[in-house]
Amino acid sequence: MRISAITLPDSKRMEIALTAIYGIGRSRAHSILDAANIPYGKKPPELTTDEGERVRKECEGHKIEGDLRREIGSSIKRLKEIGSYRGERHTRSLPVRGQRTKTNSRTRHGNVRKTMGSGKKKLDKK
User: CATH: 1.20.58.100, 3.40.50.2000, 1.10.8.50, 3.40.50.300. Which one for 2-62?
Assistant: First the structure.
């Protein structure tokens, strides 16, 4: 089953399979399936054509995949252009939402720093 150019995994339940689409998490998947009146445990190959169309129709009501990526990218670009603090943090690839950077923040920083010893060189005993 394909929704907005994404093939849903056949082996997973619908509530999990829908999360393969960018912009749909567990709670949104539940709301989509509730609106389409489909049980969470059904797998994509088990859906009838009518049920598949109802799920597609419900997904079209949300901003997902390319539209969502474009909107997020334009928001970040706007922050950079106006020179806001958050825009500067995005430009420098640092955490944007106030997290500490002395330790942690490896997701944004990359694994740049390596742990060093005490700084003292060990003397060989003679």
Answer: 1.10.8.50
pLDDT for the residue 117: 65
Alpha-carbon distances, residue 51 vs 10, 15, 64, 65, 70 (angstroms): 15, 14, 20, 21, 29
pLDDT in tens, 44-67: 898 889 988 999 998 888 888 888
Around Cβ 109, how many Cβ atoms within 10 Å?
14
The residue to which tokens 């054509």 are assigned: 49
- Whether residue 26 contacts residue 19, with contact meaning beta carbons closer than 8 Å, is answered with yes
User: For the chain, which ranges sit under pLDDT 50?
Assistant: none
Map residue 70 onto helix, strand or coil: helix
